[in-house]
Amino acid sequence: MFQTFPGHRTFHPVGFFLFFLFFCTTVSSSAQSYDAFLEPNRIVDISSPIRGRISRIHVREGDRVVAGQLLAELDTQVLQAQLASAEEAASFHGRIDSARAMVTMRKNRYAMLQELEKTGNARPQEMIRARTDLTVAKAELLSAKDDQKLKKLEADIIRARIEEKKLRSPVDGIVVKIYKEQAEHIGGVDQEGFITVVQPNPLKTLFHLPPRIATNMHVGDDVVVEINSILITALVDFISPVINAQSGTVEVRIVIDNSENHLLSGRRCILKDAVLGREMNQNMEIKNTDVQPAG
Predict the structure, then answer these.
(1) Is the model's pLDDT at 261 over the cut of 50?
(2) Distances from the Cα of 277 to the Cαs of 32, 62, 83, 199, in angstroms?
(3) What are the domain boundaries of the chain?
(4) Contact 44/67 with Cβ under 8 angstroms?
(5) What's the mean pLDDT when you consider all of the chain?
(6) Are 269 and 36 in contact, with CB atoms under 8 Å apart?
(7) N or C: which end of the chain has fewer CB within 10 A?
């Protein structure tokens, strides 16, 4: 039996159940879902700014690669020969040794004349000549050392040019396409990519949501999306600060962990109208407090 209290209506279980069922049906029918498609975190087309012939390809389509891994090499025979010549020239010490010996000789002569000058046995012209010869000898030694540094720098430049012909992956990912074969030419004016690497973790998707939905979301929020009939937790990564004037929607980017590589790029991703769902729960809590069964 239920009692009636002043200010409250009589609680009828059957009527309340019918009201609850009607309310849930109405809200669920008004709730919407928003579709998008999964995309890799990054898609990188790798080529070379310098035209060259492919001498070796180290990967195949489908291979997993890590950042910095060598993918392919262009021909470097000419550069290798130039490097050997530059390294050999940089290793020469003959000119430096000769200049150093000349400095020692000029320094000893000048010291000897200084001792003779103390006893008045050295003429001023001899002193001037000795100082000048020592200065010139030191300059020659410095010039020889500078030349050796330049030869070492030249070798470093050639090594950098050789490294530039080694194509490496900038990201951890999967090789999905190789457009050229060994011995073909790439780079230069040829803008076509050579190797495409995709980074499938994390995956991302871009939704275009009504402002009433987007304004209730925050960067870093967890949201639930449906992918291939499976509910998955995702993370709000970006919310556009502007509304698209043509569509009247706000761009919201969501990222999804794919460290296990279970999800494939290109699959349909569905975001439910979670804000309306929260409003429904809040409204139901308020209505339940208005109806109190008597004990």
Answers:
(1) yes
(2) 10, 42, 68, 34
(3) 31-41+201-290, 78-164
(4) no
(5) 83
(6) yes
(7) N
Three-state helix/strand/coil letters over the chain: CCCCCCCCCCCCHHHHHHHHHHHHHHHHHHCCEEEEECEEEEEEEECCCCCEEEEEECCCCCCEECCCCEEEEECCHHHHHHHHHHHHHHHCCHHHHHHHHHHHHHHHHHHHHHHHHHCCCCCHHHHHHHHHHHHHHHHHHHHHHHHHHHHHHHHHHHHHHHHHCEEECCCCEEEEEECCCCCCEECCCCCCCCEEEEEEEEEEEEEEECHHHHCCCCCCCEEEEEECCEEEEEEEEEECCCCCCCCCCEEEEEEECCCCCCCCCCCEEEEECHHHHHHHHHHHHHHHHHCCCCC
Residue 273 has pLDDT above 80, yes or no: no
Tokens of 29: 């029918």
Does the structure show a pLDDT above 70 at 235?
yes
110-155 pLDDT, tens digit per residue, is: 899 888 888 888 888 989 999 999 999 999 999 999 999 999 999 9
Contact 245, 202 (CB under 8 A): no
The reply to whether domains 31-41+201-290 and 78-164 share a CATH topology is: no
- Residue 272's CB is within 10 A of a number of other CB atoms, namely 16
How far apart, in whole angstroms, are the C-alpha atoms of residue 240 and residue 174?
30
What's the confidence (pLDDT) of residue 290? 45
Helix axes 124-164, 94-118, angle to 10 degrees: 160
Domain 78-164 fold is Helix Hairpins (1.10.287)
31-41+201-290 has which fold?
Elongation Factor Tu (Ef-tu); domain 3 (2.40.30)
